[in-house]
Design goal:
Elements lengths: L3 H76 L3 H28 L5 H18 L5
């Protein structure tokens, strides 16, 4: 024969499951909002890094062009080497500098980590919910 406390516990189970379900829904909604915020932040960082990469590349090209002409002429006047060799030496030096700028921009973009904390937290919460809703867990 079921006692009064057993009947109260059985009748409270649906309410408890409903409450868990409501809280789980709120948790999922909050995690989706957090994921959106993190994604927006990462996209802004990516945009900034891309703008730096493009701007640095453009300035390197313009400066390299003008600087290359000046360096080649200076090298020619200082050494008396053939002009073609002076232009080659100037271009090589500027190519190395441009490559370093491009590597810096690439490293800035590679550093992006879209949603790592949110995804991990969401996975933990799903595991917790499974444990709560599994009969006999506790």
């Amino acid at each position: 024969m079921a006692t009064r406390s057993d009947r109260e516990a059985e009748s409270g189970t649906p309410e408890l499951l409903g409450e868990i379900s409501r809280h789980a829904g709120m948790l999922v909604a909050q995690q989706i909002d957090l994921a959106r915020a993190e994604l927006g932040q990462e996209l802004r960082r990516a945009g900034t890094a891309a703008a730096s990469l493009v701007g640095g590349g453009g300035l390197a090209v313009a400066g390299g062009l003008l600087g290359g002409f000046a360096a080649a002429q200076l090298l020619r006047d200082a050494t008396g080497l053939p002009l073609w060799l002076c232009y080659g030496a100037a271009a090589g030096g500027l190519g190395v500098a441009g490559g370093m700028l491009l590597k810096s921009g690439r490293d800035g973009l590679a550093d992006l980590k879209p949603l790592p904390e949110t995804v991990a937290a969401f996975g933990e919460n799903v595991e917790w919910l499974k444990d709560q809703l599994t009969p006999g867990a506790g």
